[in-house]
Every structure is written in C-alpha cells, then in structure tokens.
Design goal:
heterodimer, A: 174 residues, alpha+beta, four-stranded mixed β-sheet, 4 strands, B: 117 residues
C-alpha cells in the first residue's frame, strides 16, 4: 500500500479547489447552458478518452467506473443508467485533475454503484464536489432551480434525481 | 494480491467508444433546455407587456377623457350656435367651458405623468 504521506481520515476535503478546477474546465469548454457534456470536456480539453465497458455480471453489478492511469482513460460501466454515467465520468475526471498521483497508487479505488460500499476517503468527496460543480455549476443552477421541478432539473442537467436533490440542498437549502 | 483497479480491469469483457443511450440522454437534455428557454422568454415578454399596460393604463384613460372633453366642448359650441334663446345659449356656453376645463385637466395629468417617467 502506498500512503503518499497522507492521513485520509484526518485530511479535510478541499472543496474550493474542486470547484475552482471544475469552473476552470467549464470556462475552457465555453459551455454556458445545461447539459454539460463531460465526454466533450474529457476528450476535448483533457485529452482523455472515455470508454464504455461491459463487465462480467458480478463486477457489473458493483462497478460504476474508474480512471485507468496506465492508459490515461476513463472507463464507465455501460450497463449503468445514463444519468449516472455523466456523474461517474465527471467524478473520475475529478481524480485525474485533482489526484492524478494518488490515482496511480494502490490506494485508489474504483467508483462503486452503491455509495454505501464506497470508501469515503477525502479524495472521493473532492471528486464528488468536482463532478457536482462541473455538471451543475451554481451559475447554471441559478437560472433554473426555482422554476423547474427536481425531475425536470435532472433531465435538463443530465444527472440523477438524487444528485440534483443533493445539489439543491447544498446550494439553496431546499 | 491484485489491486481494486486491476480486478476491475480484468472483469471487462468489451469496450466501446460511444454509448447510444448516453448520447440520446444528452440530446434530450439539449432539446429540453431549448424548450425551457423559449418558454422563459415567452413568459418574460408577457410580463413586460403586462407591466407596460399597467404603467400606461392611467394615461390611456386620461387621453380618452381628454378626447371626450374636447368632443363635448365642440358639441356645446354647436348647440350654442343653434340656440334660439339667450338662456339656452348661456347654458351651452357654460357646458363648453366645463368641457374644455375637463380636457385641460386630463391633458395636464398626461403631461404630469409622462414627465415623471
């Protein structure tokens, strides 16, 4: 196990950095309206291919996706619901942008479909924050959050309803 | 012992560079965004039109009142010219004065109101 000299349980997630990096990528992409297409950003700006993988059934039930540092590619489970695939791609992009060195270590864990099974390392929280800021940035949410239902926002931002609800709760306390 | 990542990579049986379901979802989201934008613009235009009407309503009413006053005044002049008795002529002359005064008040309201905007 490579520890990289960090104590995950004691380190606070740097949400501001996650937001800054996500907004920086969004600025470069020129996307100002939802939906944010994470594949275009990964392939067009970061030059990382996104692969849709078919897994053996036992693994497919468990895995959402991962960042493959050897091939410098993001791998997504193609059996997953499309509205979750976007978040998975953005989450793994977060690891590439924020924690590339750690992603090369044996400490790195693939993103699991059931969040309860996931190790809640601070880096996972940062990658979640990165994904939320990339796919549902505050300036886009401000335009729609008070006129559209969570179900419509989910379709509009191409993310799952739980992801939209978490974002609404974080940004507006609703 | 194989790492989490190595196990996941070993479990892959095939890959594709695109996913039609995800593409369709993103396309649907773009269409929804377009429809919502059109709807929001239409709503804004309706609100602007309503606000304009609310602002202009008193001026429009005063304009109608002014026209009524002028028409009344000219009618009074006509009636006074047709009068056969001095009392009748006197009566229509007073009505004419009041009609002009009414029109003048309406006109001053319009200018006063539009001057404040």
């Amino acid at each position: 196990m490579v520890s990289l000299g960090l104590a995950p349980g004691l380190t606070k997630p740097d949400y501001r950095r996650a937001e800054r990096e996500a907004i920086n990528l969004l600025d470069q992409s020129g996307m100002v309206e939802p939906p944010v297409n994470p594949i275009e950003i990964a392939q067009g700006i970061l030059n990382i291919p996104v692969k849709f993988a078919t897994f053996r059934p036992d693994a497919s039930a468990r895995i959402s996706g991962f960042y493959d540092c050897e091939e410098d590619a993001i791998v997504v489970n193609r059996e997953e619901f499309p509205l979750r695939q976007t978040f998975t791609i953005a989450h793994e992009m977060g690891h590439k942008v924020l924690h590339e060195e750690w992603a090369r270590s044996s400490d790195y864990q693939v993103l699991l479909r059931d969040p309860k099974d996931q190790n809640r390392d601070f880096r996972e929280k940062e990658a979640d924050a990165f994904a939320a800021n990339l796919l549902m940035p505050r300036f886009m949410m401000n335009e729609y959050y008070d006129t559209q239902s969570p179900a419509e926002l989910s379709r509009l931002f191409a993310v799952s309803v739980p992801a939209i609800r978490a974002r609404l709760s974080f940004l507006y306390g609703i | 012992m194989a790492s989490d990542l190595e196990k996941a990579k070993d479990a892959i049986t095939g890959t594709d560079s695109t996913d039609p379901n995800l593409n369709a979802t993103l396309e649907e989201a773009k269409e929804l965004q377009f429809r919502i934008t059109v709807e929001m613009n239409r709503h804004k235009e309706t609100l602007h039109a309503r606000e304009w009407l609310e602002k202009m309503a008193p001026i429009i009413i005063a304009g109608i009142a002014m026209i009524g006053g002028i028409v009344g005044a000219f009618f009074s002049i006509y009636m006074a010219s047709k009068s056969t008795t001095p009392d009748s002529a006197e009566y229509w002359y007073k009505i004419m004065e009041r009609s002009f005064a009414f029109a003048a008040v309406a006109l001053s309201f319009i200018f006063g109101r539009s001057g404040r905007r």
